[in-house]
Each structure stands twice: as structure tokens, then as C-alpha cells.
Amino acid sequence: MHGHEVDENGNLIHDMRGMPGLQGRNAEPHESEELAIMFNKFNTLSRTVENLPNGIRTLTTSSDREVMDALVSHVVGMIGRVEAKDDPQIFIQSPTLDIFFERSEKIETTIDVTDEGIVVVQTTDDPELIEAMHIHAAEVSDMAARGMQAVHEQMMGRMH
Questions:
Q1: pLDDT band at residue 154, thresholds of 50, 70 and 90?
Q2: Backbone angles phi and psi of 18, in degrees to 5
Q3: Number of Cβ atoms within 10 Å of the Cβ of 84
Q4: Which residue, 28, 98, 114, 131, is the most exposed by fewest CB within 10 angstroms?
Q5: How far apart are CA 69 and CA 136, in angstroms?
Q6: DSSP class of 24
Q7: Could you give the 3-state DSSP secondary structure of residue 66?
Q8: C-beta of residue 131 within 8 angstroms of C-beta of residue 139
């Protein structure tokens, strides 16, 4: 299997440098590189999510400076892309993001990089967007906790 190896427990191991799933039809190479850094070192990430009645509040941090830098760049870049309706179409991207790009004008976002980590608050009056925010925040938390295994399971769930 190209880009895959199996560890002693039978789990798939990825060569992130060659992973085509981290690329996109409209993504820049540095964006794919940021994803690779975060997936390669996902075990350094820590994340909390507060589901708000009108959105989410997340705090994400990493014990690794390189991962933290990639995380901040990724978050700021993706929120900028959402605001511009400029979908990177990353191959492993969750379809949950589609509504963000479609209705970006209805999302209020604040980003605060603190000593604690990166805090993102997103709110809206749109009930479908609120639901998508809650779902996407849970998906991202799962990826931060379990890396590519979470992505595989999310993608397999969409196929069935």
C-alpha cells in the first residue's frame, strides 16, 4: 500500500511526506506541509471545545513549537479561506466544511493566540451552521487525539 506501513499492532502508519490526501485541488504546498507536521506529531496536540448555543469556543495547543507554529498558520489560513469562500479542496477534507464556505458571511470569528494556545470563537445565527460548527469541532478534536486513524474512520463512515 503506497504511503502506508503496518506497525506491530496492525495499525496503519503513514509516510506523511508522500500522502496525497494532504494535498488539494486548490491548496498551496505550504498548507499540505502544515497538515503533515500536525498529523506527524498529533500526539503533541491538546484541545478543548466548548459548544456554545450559537457556535463554538476552542483552545488548541501543542507542546512542540514547530507544531504550534503550523497550527496557528493553518487555523488563520483556513479561517481566511472560509471568509474569502476559497475552498482548498484538501482530499481528506470533511464535507462538514462545505457549509462554512457556502455561508461564510454568516460566521463571526475571533482568533486569539495566547500563552495557553490558539483560541477560536465562532458564532452565527444560522442553526445549520451552528450544527456544522459543533460537528467539525468534534472531528478536529478526534484528529488531534488520534491522528490519521480518525481521518480513516471518518472517511470510511462517509462511504457506507
A1: confident
A2: -105, 10
A3: 10
A4: 114
A5: 21
A6: B
A7: helix
A8: no
- pTM of the model as a whole: 0.86
The 8 Å CB, 24+ separation contacts for 62-69 are 62/117, 66/37, 66/41, 67/37, 67/38, 67/41, 68/117
- Which three three-digit cell numbers place residue 85? 469562500
Residue that is written with C-alpha cell 495499525 in the block: 11
pLDDT score of 157: 76
Cα separation, 149 vs 142, whole angstroms? 9
Tell me the mean pLDDT in the region 1-25: 59
Residues ≥6 apart with Cβ < 8 Å to 94: 136, 139, 154
Query: Quick check: 10 pLDDT over 70?
Result: no
Quick check: 30 pLDDT over 50?
yes
Cell 452565527 sits on residue? 124
What is the signed CA dihedral for 28, 34, 37, 41, rounded to 10 degrees? -140
For residues 143 and 42, is the Cβ–Cβ distance under 8 A? yes
